[in-house]
Amino acid sequence: MSKRRKEILGDPGLYLGKLVDYSSKFEQVTGNRDYSLKTIREYVESQHYEVENDPENFRMVLGAFCILLIDWYAMKLKVRGIFQKRISVESK
User: Fold this and answer.
1) Is the dihedral of CA 69, 9, 59, 40 positive or negative?
2) Model-level pTM?
3) Can you give the pLDDT of all 92 residues of the chain as single tens digits?
4) Cα(44)–Cα(58) distance, integer angstroms
5) Element (DSSP H or E) covering residue 39
C-alpha cells in the first residue's frame, strides 16, 4: 500500500473497528446493499477511478471491499506487524 493510502487509512486497528460504519456509508451512497465486485467496480468507475482524492470516499470503498472479502470469500482481516501495522487478509 502506498504511503498516501496508509495516511488516508490511518490506524489499521481503528479502521477495522469502524469497518461496518464505512460499509454502511457505501450502502447509503450507492443505494445498493449488494457488496459484489460488480457494485464496487461500478461505483469506482462512476468516480472516474479517482477514489483517493477524498479520504472518506477511499475508506468507504475499501470498507465495502473488506466486507466482500469477509462475507463472500470467508476471509479474516487482522492487524499485523510490530513496527509497521498493516491489515492482513487470511483464510478462516
Assistant:
1) negative
2) 0.89
3) 688 888 999 999 999 999 999 999 999 999 988 788 999 999 999 999 999 999 999 999 999 999 999 999 999 999 999 888 899 999 97
4) 10
5) helix 37-46
